[in-house]
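Sequence in, structure out.
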Amino acid sequence: MGHKWIIDVIADLRDFAERNGLPLLANQLEVTASVAKTEIETRLNGVGPVPNHANSQHVPPLEDIG
């Protein structure tokens, strides 16, 4: 199946956010797409995993948001 599908899903989510007045979410999804592309290309080129520095940030579970 490959990895392209996840980029397409993120693009669909970004488009939805843009069409529905969610500019911060649309921007974050653009960043997410960029990270996904970089990480996938790195993996496909045989390089080890990209270091994950995001683990130092606390992200609340979805049920805690809203």
